[in-house]
Structures are given as structure tokens and as C-alpha cells.
Amino acid sequence: MTALGLAGAVVQPVLIVAGAPVLVGVMRQVRARLEGRAGPGIRQPWRDLRKLFGKERIAPRGTSEVFRVAPLVLVATTLVITVVAPFVTVASVLNPVADLFVVVALLAVGAVALALAGLDTGTAFGGMGASREVTILALVEPTLLVAILALSARVGSTNLGDVVSSMVREPSRVISPVSLLAAVALVIATVAENGRIPVDNPSTHLELTMVHEAMVLEYAGPDLALVELASAMRLSVFLGLLANLFVPWGIATTATPAALLAGVLALVLKVGVLGAALAAAEVFLAKLRLFRVPELLAGSFLLSLLAVAASYFLA
Amino acid sequence: MTETVYVQLLDLTCGALLLTAVLILWRRDLSVIVRVFALQGAALTALVAVLAAHERSGELWVIAAGVLALRAGLLPYLLRRTLAAAGEPQREARPLVNVAASLLAAAVLTFLAHAVSRPLVTLAPSPAAQAIPIAVTVVLIGFFVLVTRRHAVSQVVGFLLMDNGITALGLLTTTGVGLVVEVGVSLDVLLAVLVLQILAVRIRETFGDTDLDDLRELRD
After folding, report:
1. How far apart are CA B185 and CA B21, in angstroms?
2. Which domain holds residue A90?
3. Domain count, chain A
4. Residue B160 is part of which domain span?
5. Is B56 in a helix, a strand, or coil?
6. How far is A180 from chain B (nearest CA, A)?
7. pTM for the complete prediction?
8. DSSP letter string over A218-283?
9. Out of B100, B114, B121, closest to residue A309 by CB
10. ipTM surpasses 0.90
11. Count of the separate structural domains present in chain B
12. Of the candidates B19, B107, B133, which has its C-beta nearest A313's C-beta?
């Protein structure tokens, strides 16, 4: 446990919890402007959350503990990732937990908890959303694991901090076939896992096509606020990992205040740019038919597999 | 050019070659497929140029210019003309093996390529030799496209993909198989595409489509 790891463990969760809804606000605002609307402003997600947190807790009749616990599990797993994974600093307070497999498994635990909650309500929408979410999850998880494995194979360690710090030391690794193939695969996996266009539409509510929104349809009040906050945090976590795995510059490698400040600014800048680019790309894309989604995900899996093959054979 | 820059550029161009081959397998829109094929021609040109700069060989530069003119210019132009003659935008609507399965098949083919080219790589382990599996993968993916697609134009693209792979393989193993051989092969490919183009036009004039499965109905 180093000073750098401790500093990261304090700064990262605060930054991501505070910044994730702002990121969602920025993305909505970019979309609104490109579509010719005024947009609600980037603080709207925080206003929504404050309103929802102020309401009374209410759960549908017939739901069990699973429904009540799921939002907490979702937020807790995401918080653990924000504490340990390399976002602002390369060191981690719990080094074994900053492992590729642990991080991907934690993300999966949160998604599965929410899918179970969707099933627990017993409504048609909840079950349908859960089944679709699990289908997509089953196709995305291998891509995530294999793509990051391709990056870690060159380092010889699956610890995310080690992967990122080796990228910082050897910038020539950033432009290689392994990185390019893995980057494309991870972008597609990020889009699919966070329910963005073209896999899912985050702004629909009463359509038969929705995936994520269908699962959380029965939530209200503080529980809904937790779910929304957690999904915003997951988006930030994915974009932050994506940014640091492929463009690691600016991340703090020493425990000085200046380095930490630079790390925070670099993360905000990188994630902001990535989020804005994602939102801008969404304006030009149409949602895929659900039956075409496996095709897209099979393609991303193939790219990640090619990245692994390239990391072993071209090195 | 220093050795590390050379290796990086070589790997990058080989990666682009592989990525375009996968994209051809992935996309259904025939005009997009032809455009990606032109990109692959450009990637192949870059590969030859990198080799030429490393070997300081004038002959390789001539080959690079030839590859650019033929594979990124002339052949995509001919394919585009065949498509434009058909009028409405065409799609590879239902390949024999669906797209998700063919992408997974491509993954298997990649490992097959790595397995069979192992002896070649160990024979003379240079950076160029280590990229041989990628060229073999492109050949196998091209063959896969050739046998699983129904549309005449995508079958021609599959054939050309194979040829791109074979050219890359020749260059990577021997750094140039000689200008005469290269020119001969290129003319051969050009002739094949011209003949196939005329054939495709004839098929469409007779049957109104270039879906080769319709030809089964010729039997009585």
C-alpha cells in the first residue's frame, strides 16, 4: 500500500461519482446541440438525481429482497472498481483487485444483479429486458477479457496498473496492430455494455426495442437514482479504462500534488473528449435490429482475438 | 529508416491488411465491400513501400507503384462499374454461412494460418517472416469469401482478396519475387477480373440479377 495508491483510492471515487452524471449531461448536451435543440444543460442529470433522492422509497408489490438489493450491489461493485483501477494514478491500494479478471467480473456482477432485479418484478418488460441484457452480456464479456488480455500479454501481467504504466514507459507500444485491433474491439464492447446506440437507445422509454431501460422500468425514487448514478459511473469507468489503456499520458506515477492534479485533469479531458465523440457519433447512427447485434459483437470478438494472435506472433 | 521504425511500420501495414480482410467479411453492402477492397490495395502498397524503403530496392518501388495503380485504382474501378451498371444498391443479403458464424470461422482460420506457417517463420525468423501468418490468414479469408458468398461481385472480391494475400506472402517471404513475375501475375489477375466482369454483365442481362444461386434453375 503506497501513498500514490492511497491518494488514488480517495481521489478517484470522488471524481467519478461527482463527474459521471456531468459526463452524461455533456453527452446529452452535445447530442441536443447537433440535433438543433437547446438541450437541458450539463447539470440536468445531477438535478434529476437530487429530485429522485428526495422521494420516498417505494417497491412494487410482490418483489423480494433481490429487487431492493440490486441497486446497492450495482453501485458498490462500480465503486470498488473506481477505487482500485488505474484512472488517476497507476498504483492501486488493493493491488490484487486491480486485476483484469477481477475488474471484468465485478462489472459482470453488477449487470447480473440488475438483470435478476428485472426478473424479480415479474413483469413482461423486466423479463424481456433481462433476457436481452444477459444475451448481450454473454457476448461482450469474452471480448472485454480477450481484448485487455492482448494488451497485458506484452507486459506479462494482468494487473491493469502494470499494463498502463508499461504503456507510459514505452509510448511506441501505443501505435501497433495489437493496440489498434484491441481498441476497436473495446470501443464496440463499451458501446454494447453501456447500452448506447447502435446496440440500445438510452433515451427510449416505451418501446419494444429497449434493453437497459426495460430492466429498470419498475424502479422509482432513491432506488432509481442509484441505478441511474451507477449506470453513469459504469460509462465513466469504461471510458476511463479505454482512455488509460490506449492513451495513458498524464496519469500520475508519483504521489506529488502536482502529478495528481495533472492526472485528474488528464482523465477529465480524455473522458470528456471520448464521451463527446461517442455522443456525436450516435447522432449519425441508427439503432441496429436486435438480431443484428450478435453479428456486431462477433466482429468485435474476432478483432480482439486477432489482437491476441498479433501480440503473440508479431512480437 | 531505423530498425524499430521499420518493424512498427511493417506490423501496422500488416494489421491494416488483416483489418480490411475482416471488414470485407463483415459488411453486406457491396459498394462498401468494394471501397474496403480499395483500402486494402492501399495497405498492400504501403507494405511494399515499407519493404522497398528498408531494402533500398528500386525494383520494389516499381512494384509498389504497380500495386497501387492496379489494386487500389483499376480493379476497384472495374468492380464499381459492374455495380453501377446494375443500378440499385446491392447487398449480399443471405450468404451461405451467416455473418456472425463466418466471423467466428475467420477466427479459426487465423489460428490455422498461424499453425501452418509456423515452420516458415522458424526457418528464418526476421520481422518480415513473422508477418507471414497474416498474409496466409488473408489468403484463407479470401478463399472463405469465395466459397460462401452468393453474389458474383463478392465472389470476385474474394478471389482478389486471395490474390492480395498471395502477393503479400510472396513479398514477405522473399522480399520481391522479381518484377517479371509480379507483372505477369498482375496481368493475369486483371484479365481474370475483366472476363468475370463481362460474365457478370451477361448473367445479369440474361437473368436480371448476379445472384449465382439462380443459375441452378438452368437445369430442367
Report:
1. 21
2. 3-313
3. 1
4. 3-218
5. coil
6. 8
7. 0.86
8. T--HHHHHHHHHHHHHHHHHHHHHHHHHH--TT-B-S--HHHHHHHHHHHHHHHHHHHHHHHHHHH
9. B114
10. no
11. 1
12. B133
